[in-house]
């Protein structure tokens, strides 16, 4: 498989995620779309780490795995973010009786 | 020999008195306000002693120079503060402290019972301190500071009874009109500031007065820094300031109105000292003026014209203080004209004698007011029998003003007339001739109005005083006249008569300071004061030795005495035996009388045409239009723009998180595209 294929998959994933985040009204769907965007980034990071690291540096294990390490960090952070996000969704549901994002406009004032 | 500390304390003592009264006596001890009078009198008494000591030192040693203190420096221009003590300063110090002391003593009686007694003495101390600072200043900027301070004190004192609208208006008028002249003075200072580099190049300080003298000397080895048209304009700028302060035409209109202030204030400020500051200023910069024949011509002609012009208005005034005010303007015209002709020493000598006899005349007017409650001579008359001492003193002062031998005014006025006749070669001969004629005609007019004033006030029968005046005019008693209201014909108390008597002695004897006749009399050498002052001027020019003085001329004495006697005779003939004491014989002059009693319509011209029509309508109207339309319009437009742009941008704030996120996403996309395409 070529490097471009990975990037195309990553870009398609990102765009689907972005569309979902911007267009879906359900907060849970939005959170899931954001997850998609995270993973699109992870795919491209790992692919870049694999294909773009200069040959001279490939002996050093730490440089070879840079992208992978980033990806692991992002997964961790994403997990934490989802926990936080779900907490907000519960709070929102308690006050609004709804998980519709378009109704959550209190921050306007 | 007098030390620097003593000279500084001449200025600092009245200042301390002001601070003490304003900060301690007035807020804390106002019930015992008499204290402020004694503080002022004590401070001025000491200052007078120190001034006499200084005068003696200057007379014996001549060269009192003191190192100035550095005040501030801007680029090459350094502004110092220091003392300039030359014969002119020394003489002025004694005049200012002397007259001021006597006036303060007089005020103890005159102002007694006034609710603002302490405030009065605080202002008077402030004025005296400012005037002394003005006289002592060695730096033109320092001089300007005190110049404005005397203006402020004058404003405060004219408007002392500020609850009277006339007094408040007169104070404003005085302040504004003198300020017009001061602009010229300020421009002259700014010109010197602009030339500071040229001064510094040859080691002079552009603000140090002796350095300015030196820079104007054409024969100076350094090459004249000031010369030609620039020197003329510089001199005229300084003269503009002097015109405002000394009430010279066309800036004379404030001085007669200034009579709204308390009478001792008029005696001190508007007769003896502050109005003489203009004369002092021209004398101070005389070594600059004398190198410009054009400037000297202007000075001489303005002075000569004012001398006769103001005197003519004095002929018809009914208010005793206004007669004296016009007389003061006229006598200041004599001094200015004398300076313009180059008669430095006679002008200052006349200033000294005038300070004595004019202050006495004003104090006499105050004394009369104390008895009758009014200043209007139509309601006086016959006071000679009730107030003999005041009568005698006013007659002495009046004759000194007219210039009758052997009183003080005779000697000083004679020196001016003689000098004007002989000429000094500084101006063209025609200027000498015109000035001399105007001044000699002025003597006749002066004699006439002085005698008219004395006869209307002191002779004939008493015509009712303030009670009659109020009855006829059907008006409420002026608030400031409280305490002086009511007619009680009697001689004034001792504290008022004593200073008048001392000034009377001065008005008789001061003339002998010039000692025109004898080689050595009572320790005063021949031509002492004029020689003393002329030597000071010589030193200022950088010349040593003794300067020439004018010799007494019998011919001129006869001419001026005949002129004075003819004026006196005319006035006696018209007024003393007039049948109807309430009639004004000069009214028979018809249109001339109307013109004079309307002050040549100059006040009308200033107030109606210059202020209302020109200033209010044209200038203020234009500025108002610009303010309303251009300035306000711009501000409103800016406000309108931001209010509306705010509304427009506010529409974007929907509270929809996804809308914001869309904005961010497409914003980032746009930035990336821009980076890729660039």
Q: Can you describe what's shown?
A:
The complex is a heterodimer of chains A (109) and B (678). Chain A is mainly α. Chain A has one domain (3-103): Helix Hairpins (Orthogonal Bundle). Chain A contains 4 helices and no strands. Chain B has 678 residues and is mainly α. Chain B contains 26 helices and 6 strands. In chain B, a hairpin with a 2-residue loop joins strand 2 and strand 3. Chain B is globular, with a radius of gyration of 30 Å. Classes of the chains: A mainly alpha (109), B mainly alpha (678).
Taken together, the total number of domains of chain A comes to 1
Query: Considering DSSP H and I runs of 4 or more, what fraction of the residues of chain B is helical?
Result: 55-70%
**What is the name of the CATH class of chain A?**
Mainly Alpha
Q: Counting H and I runs of at least 4 residues, what is the number of helices of chain A? A: 4
Largest sheet of chain A: none
The amount of beta strand of chain A, in percent, is: under 5%
Mean pLDDT of chain B: 85
Derived from helix and strand composition plus strand pairing, the structural class of chain B reads mainly alpha
Largest sheet of chain B: 2 strands, antiparallel
- The name of the CATH topology of chain A is Helix Hairpins
Shape of chain B: globular
> Are there runs of chain B of 5+ residues with pLDDT below 50, and where?
479-483
Shape of chain A: elongated
* Most extensive protein-chain contact, per-chain counts: A-B, 13 and 9 residues
Short description:
The complex is a heterodimer of chains A (109) and B (678). Chain A is mostly helical and 109 residues long.
């Amino acid at each position: 498989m070529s490097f471009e294929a990975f990037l195309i998959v990553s870009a398609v994933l990102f765009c689907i995620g972005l569309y979902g985040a911007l267009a879906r009204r359900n907060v849970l769907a939005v959170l899931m779309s954001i997850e998609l965007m995270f993973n699109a980034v992870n795919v491209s990071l790992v692919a870049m780490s694999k294909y773009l690291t200069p040959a001279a540096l490939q002996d050093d294990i730490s440089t070879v795995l840079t992208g992978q390490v980033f990806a692991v960090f992002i997964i961790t952070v994403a997990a934490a973010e989802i926990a936080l996000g779900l907490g907000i969704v519960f709070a929102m549901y308690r006050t609004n009786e709804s998980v519709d994002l378009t109704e959550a406009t209190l921050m306007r004032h | 020999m007098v030390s620097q500390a003593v000279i500084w304390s001449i200025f600092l003592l009245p200042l301390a008195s002001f601070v003490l009264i304003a900060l301690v006596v007035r807020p804390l001890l106002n019930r015992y306000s008499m204290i402020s009078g004694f503080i002022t009198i004590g401070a001025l008494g000491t200052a007078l002693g120190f001034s006499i000591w200084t005068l003696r030192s200057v007379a014996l040693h001549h060269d009192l120079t003191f190192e100035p203190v550095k005040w501030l420096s801007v680029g090459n221009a350094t502004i110092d503060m220091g003392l300039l003590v030359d014969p002119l300063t020394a003489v002025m110090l004694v005049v200012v402290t002397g007259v001021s002391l006597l006036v303060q003593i007089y005020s103890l009686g005159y102002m007694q019972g006034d609710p603002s007694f302490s405030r009065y003495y605080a202002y008077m101390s402030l004025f005296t301190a400012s005037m002394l600072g003005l006289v002592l200043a060695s730096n033109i900027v320092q001089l300007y500071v005190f110049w404005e301070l005397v203006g402020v004190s004058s404003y405060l004192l004219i408007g002392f009874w500020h609850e009277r609208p006339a007094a408040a208006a007169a104070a404003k008028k005085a302040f504004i009109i003198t300020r017009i002249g001061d602009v010229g003075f300020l421009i002259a200072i700014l010109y010197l500031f602009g030339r500071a580099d040229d001064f510094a190049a040859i080691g002079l300080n552009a603000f140090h007065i002796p350095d300015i003298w030196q820079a104007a000397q054409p024969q100076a080895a350094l090459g004249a820094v000031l010369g030609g048209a620039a020197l003329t304009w510089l001199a005229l700028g300084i003269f503009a300031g002097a015109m405002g302060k000394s009430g010279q035409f066309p800036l004379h209109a404030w001085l007669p109105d200034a009579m709204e202030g308390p009478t001792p204030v008029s005696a001190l400020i508007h007769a003896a000292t502050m109005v003489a500051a203009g004369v002092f200023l021209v004398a101070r910069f005389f070594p600059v003026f004398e190198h410009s024949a054009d400037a000297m011509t202007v000075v001489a002609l303005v002075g000569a014209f004012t001398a006769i012009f103001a005197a003519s208005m004095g002929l018809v005034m009914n208010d005793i203080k206004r007669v004296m005010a016009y007389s003061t303007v006229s006598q200041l015209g004599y001094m200015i004209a004398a300076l313009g002709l180059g008669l430095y020493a006679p002008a200052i000598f006349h200033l000294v004698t005038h300070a004595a006899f004019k202050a006495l005349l004003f104090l006499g007017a105050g004394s009369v007011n104390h008895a009758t409650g009014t200043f209007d001579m139509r309601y006086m008359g016959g006071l000679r029998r009730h107030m003999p001492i005041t009568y005698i003193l006013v007659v002495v002062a009046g004759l000194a003003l007219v210039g009758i031998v052997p009183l003080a005014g005779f000697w000083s006025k004679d020196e001016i007339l003689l000098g004007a006749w002989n000429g000094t070669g500084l101006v063209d001969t025609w200027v000498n001739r015109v000035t001399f004629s105007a001044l000699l005609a002025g003597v006749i007019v002066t004699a006439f109005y002085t005698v008219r004033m004395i006869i209307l006030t002191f002779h004939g029968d008493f015509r009712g005083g303030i009670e009659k005046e109020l009855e006829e005019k059907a008006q409420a008693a002026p608030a400031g006249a409280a305490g002086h209201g009511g007619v009680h014909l009697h001689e004034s108390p001792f504290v008022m008569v004593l200073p008048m008597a001392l000034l009377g002695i001065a008005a008789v004897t001061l003339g002998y300071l010039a000692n025109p006749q004898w080689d050595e009399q009572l320790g005063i050498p021949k031509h002492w004061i004029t020689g003393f002052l002329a030597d000071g001027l010589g030193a200022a020019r950088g010349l040593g030795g003794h300067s020439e003085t004018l010799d007494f001329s019998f011919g001129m004495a006869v001419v001026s005495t005949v002129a004075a006697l003819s004026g006196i005779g005319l006035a006696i003939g018209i007024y003393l035996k007039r049948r109807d004491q309430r009639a004004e014989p000069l009214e028979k002059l018809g249109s001339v009388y109307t013109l004079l009693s309307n002050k040549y319509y100059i006040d009308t011209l200033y107030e109606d045409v210059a202020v209302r029509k020109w200033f209010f309508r044209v200038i203020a109207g234009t500025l108002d239009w610009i303010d309303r339309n251009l300035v306000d319009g711009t501000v409103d437009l800016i406000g309108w723009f931001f209010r509306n742009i705010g509304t427009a941008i506010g529409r974007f704030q929907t509270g929809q998180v996804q809308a914001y996120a869309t904005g961010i996403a497409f914003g980032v996309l746009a930035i990336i595209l821009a980076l890729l395409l660039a």
